């Protein structure tokens, strides 16, 4: 009887402990990114941030081997607007936004360099299958460990997949979308970056 009374007294504390634990595990940025209940990607229509020219921060000089075994480096594309899309073959929102990215790249043409950052695929095969399935014509840097993504600390959270950055002609981050991007939004962001 004494044991039962003690158990009853602790029961109200269990929901409070679970709530406290859930709150502690969610960073402010994650909460603001409209996370889905699943891990590793962001769902929703995408949260857009546009940065005035005076407030733009330099993008890290990233690069590496692409899914098609070539070398790619951001420094080689100074003077062009660059669109960086972070994706993984395992990510449902990445699959959903792929047609919009392809449409934007075709609409914007050769004056804008699109580059993917294929992260957390431990092997190139799933990424290559994704590229083939959707007809993605722009390259993607292969980043199985997420090391390249970590270079964007403060600009993209490692849990914000998919994410898209628009990098201006001076190599500064002009805009960011956390979550899925649409063709219209991306084209507008690129045009703004090119003008400023």
TrEMBL record:
Q: Does the keyword Disulfide bond apply?
A: yes
Location relative to the cell: Cell envelope
Q: Which domain of life is it from?
A: Bacteria
The residue ranges of the Thioredoxin domain are 53-195
Q: What is this protein called?
A: TlpA disulfide reductase family protein
Gene3D superfamilies assigned to the protein according to its UniProt record, in alphabetical order:
Glutaredoxin (3.40.30.10)
Question: In terms of one coarse class, where is the protein primarily found?
Answer: other
Keywords, sorted A to Z: Cytochrome c-type biogenesis, Disulfide bond, Redox-active center, Signal, Signal-anchor, Transmembrane
Signal peptide coordinates: 1-31
């Amino acid at each position: 009887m004494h044991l039962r009374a003690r158990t009853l007294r602790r029961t109200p504390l269990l929901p409070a402990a679970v709530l406290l634990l859930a709150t502690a595990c969610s960073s402010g940025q994650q909460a603001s990114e409209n996370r889905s209940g699943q891990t590793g990607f962001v769902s929703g229509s995408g949260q857009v941030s546009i940065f005035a020219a005076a407030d733009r921060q330099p993008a890290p000089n990233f690069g590496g081997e692409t899914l098609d075994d070539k070398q790619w480096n951001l420094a080689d594309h100074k003077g062009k607007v660059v669109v960086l899309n972070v994706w993984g073959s395992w990510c449902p929102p990445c699959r959903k936004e792929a047609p919009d990215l392809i449409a934007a790249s075709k609409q914007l043409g050769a004056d804008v360099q699109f580059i993917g950052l294929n992260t957390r695929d431990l092997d190139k095969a799933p990424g290559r299958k994704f590229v083939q399935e959707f007809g993605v014509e722009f390259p993607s840097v292969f980043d199985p460990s997420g090391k390249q993504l970590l270079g964007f600390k403060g600009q993209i959270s490692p849990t914000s997949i998919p994410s898209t950055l628009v990098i201006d002609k001076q190599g500064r981050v002009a805009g960011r979308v956390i979550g899925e991007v649409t063709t219209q939004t991306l084209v507008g962001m690129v045009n703004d970056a090119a003008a400023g």
